[in-house]
Specification:
globular, metal-binding, GUC1C protein, calcium, lipoprotein, EF_hand_dom
Amino acid sequence: MGANESMPGNDPVPEMHHYYSKFMRECPSGQLSLHEFKKLLGLQGLDPQGDVYIKRVFDIFDLNKDGFIDFLEFIAAINLVIRGKIDQKLKWYFKLYDADGNGCIDKKELLSIFAAIQAINGYADMTAEEFTNMIFQKIDVNNDGELTLEEFINGVEKHEDLMELITKSFDLSNVLKVIQNGRRHSI
């Protein structure tokens, strides 16, 4: 289809167009509900823990908190996951773990989110308890059983193995692949 094919380069416009047409095809109203979000990612029928995690991800992407993800919020989320700098991603992860929004992550919050992610990704090099204890052991500097944003970012940036583990276990790129390539309809 020669003429209107753009040269691969740094121009983000064709990519945006691709995402826009995909978004509108999957979501003609332009407003993605939690139910549609799960459907888009092929994540219906998860166990309760998996559901909690997907709801948290959805809530964080829903920047204006209206219960829907619109196209701009969708693009902001994709940009963060693909192009975000490491401290932006860590802030995002922190928000994801801080379930009650009090600005600190406690062991229970980290445990429940990690267990939920394991339920979806099937990633199980270690149990949720082992993972949580290891994180707190390494980065809870003042041993108060809570991690502040600062402790979290500094701690993870200091320990490359933690950075790798967190990135691997909370990797959303498989979610984006689904969005980019479309759902594989298994029959």
